[in-house]
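Please fill in the sequence for the structure shown.

STRUCTURE ENCODING:
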């Protein structure tokens, strides 16, 4: 059995400003760097064979805090990126509700609100494929995957046998730097309690 330890990146500048990021390459805030350090300390309790990260800066900076502490290299992958939010990148919810209420309504209904970019389903397919590949490369090991809120939700939904929209409508987005675990055995995923993941 492989244990994937999933971590959302620390707070970025656009998280703090409540702006949609998607593929925008935004840095961590001071608070985000502190969250990354705290995450690295928490991970001392777990054996780690490898660290994988989204190639976006906010995830790489978070992963680097762990990599320095554990003396491990980071493998960056673009298929671990957040959903591409197209025309919404850099915009706040308030701005969008004023300028494009029909797009926000579409998004609230579970569809893609933005123009361009990709759907949540497209993102979920690529992220689940990526983490499945990562797990297969590390049989019986513990691996850290630093990614984004939507990506963590996609993996959790898959492990629970839920569609992305069903999970999105019932569970809040992962907080910055939150750690969770998924067990992978014979290609099948299930959520795992962190207490059981040591």
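FILLED IN BY: designer on duty
SEQUENCE:
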């Amino acid at each position: 059995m492989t244990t994937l330890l999933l971590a959302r990146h620390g707070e970025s500048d656009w998280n703090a400003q409540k702006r949609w990021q998607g593929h925008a390459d935004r840095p961590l805030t001071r608070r985000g760097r502190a969250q990354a350090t705290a995450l690295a300390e928490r991970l001392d309790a777990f054996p780690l064979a490898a660290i994988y990260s989204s190639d976006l800066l906010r995830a790489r900076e978070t992963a680097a805090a762990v990599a320095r502490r554990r003396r491990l290299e980071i493998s960056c992958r673009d298929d671990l990126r957040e959903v591409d939010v197209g025309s919404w990148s850099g915009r706040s919810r308030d701005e969008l509700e004023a300028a494009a209420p029909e797009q926000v309504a579409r998004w609230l209904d579970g569809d893609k609100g933005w123009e361009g970019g990709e759907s949540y389903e497209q993102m979920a397919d690529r992220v689940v494929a990526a983490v499945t590949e990562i797990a297969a490369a590390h049989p019986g090991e513990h691996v850290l995957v630093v990614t984004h809120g939507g990506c963590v939700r996609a993996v959790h939904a898959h492990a629970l046998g839920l569609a992305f929209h069903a999970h999105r409508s019932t569970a809040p987005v992962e907080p910055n730097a939150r750690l969770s675990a998924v067990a992978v055995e014979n290609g099948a995923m299930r959520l795992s309690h962190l207490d059981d993941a040591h």
